[in-house]
Amino acid sequence: MANTYQGACGRVPSVRPGANFKEAVCIDTNRVYDSVSDKNCLEDLQVTFPDDVQSIVNNCCSLKLKEVEVENVYMDVEPIPFNKGFYTVDITFFFQATFEAQMPGMSCVTITGVTTFTRKMILYGSEGNVKVFCSDQNGTNQNGGMPKVCLQVSAPVALGCRIVDCNTGCGNNCGCCNPCNSCNSCNPCGCSTSCNPCDCQTDCGCNTSCGCNNSCNSCGSQRQVLITIGIFIIVQMERRVQMLMPAYDFCIPTKEPEAPTTGDPCELFKKIKFPTDSFFPPNASEISQEKSCGCDR
Q1: What is this structure's pTM?
Q2: Three-state SS at 269
Q3: Smaller CB count within 10 Å for the chain: N or C?
Q4: Contact at 8 Å (CB) between 167 and 221?
């Protein structure tokens, strides 16, 4: 019986229906050994601002979260001792948040800040005790003993933000120490005698005998901004392997390029179909009737 391959929705892209594969070929690729999908609602992430932007936050009447973007992701992979083939993955997200600050006098200012979030998970990545060297990498070791982690993340969903006043004294969130074993000579500071000089970031006018330092930044009028966002991620643990795959033929392009038009721009505009879906978006019942694989889209 002839061996045929059909992809999603019964389609074979770029291969005629019922085509037989010609030969089995060995390819060098990354195989996914383990993968997870994760849905996280990240609450009360503290946003850090530059000094000039922090002054805007301190004096604004209200703050609205406009957009959140993933600036970078740092991943650290380490093997788990006594559990061969499993690895811990520490993922640190770096987000850039854009706000609209309402200032006194009805003026609006757009500001940006950064925040981070760390997620840890355990994935299976099999074992490998080889070193990989390639000529196109000038003989550099490709670390074939460790698996590779790939992460896909959707655009974060901005759910909300709030401003927290940072008051001086004990029990606040601006960096002062607890418990409050304050000195008699520095009661306004509310710092513990066991704290480092700059643990209390309030210039209360006392000396280091109370655990405060006049060189510390003032914290009495600062505000903290906490945001809540939602993210969807897919994490895959891959390892470079050689696999035997059925091959149909070489991928020969059949589409011819279209030459750019130099004629009347209105003639080009007439060829564009009317965007009906933009004016009449589908309702919930129509969306639910669409196939999950997207064949009818």
Answers
A1: 0.64
A2: helix
A3: N
A4: no
User: Between 246 and 11, where is the model more confident?
Assistant: 246
Residue 115 neighbours by CB under 8 Å, 6+ apart: 45, 46, 47, 48, 94, 95, 97, 227
Full DSSP string of 160-206: EEEEEE--SSTT-SSS--SS----GGGTTT---TTS-TTTS----S-
Overall size of the chain counted in residues? 297
Decide if 227 contacts 65 (C-beta within 8 A). Answer: yes
In tens, the pLDDT along 38-85 reads 999 999 999 999 988 998 898 888 899 999 999 999 999 999 988 888
Give yes or no for a contact between 22 and 245, defined as CB atoms under 8 angstroms apart. no
**Contacts (Cβ under 8 Å, ≥6 apart) of 68:** 95, 96, 97, 98, 156, 157, 158, 227, 229
| Spatial CA neighbour of 234 closest among 148, 153, 149 | 153
Q: How many CA atoms lie within 13 A of 186 on its CB side?
A: 27
Residue-wise DSSP of 212-230 = --TTSPP-TT-EEEEEEEE
Q: How far is CA 5 from CA 1, 2, 30, in A?
A: 13, 10, 21
Long-range contacts of 251-254 (CB under 8 A, 24+ apart): 251/14
Contacts of 266 (CB under 8 A, 6+ apart): none
3-state secondary structure at position 268? helix
* SS3 of residue 1 by DSSP: coil
Strand 148-153, strand 86-103: pairing: unpaired
Give residue-wise pLDDT tens across range 110-132. Answer: 999 999 999 999 999 988 877 77
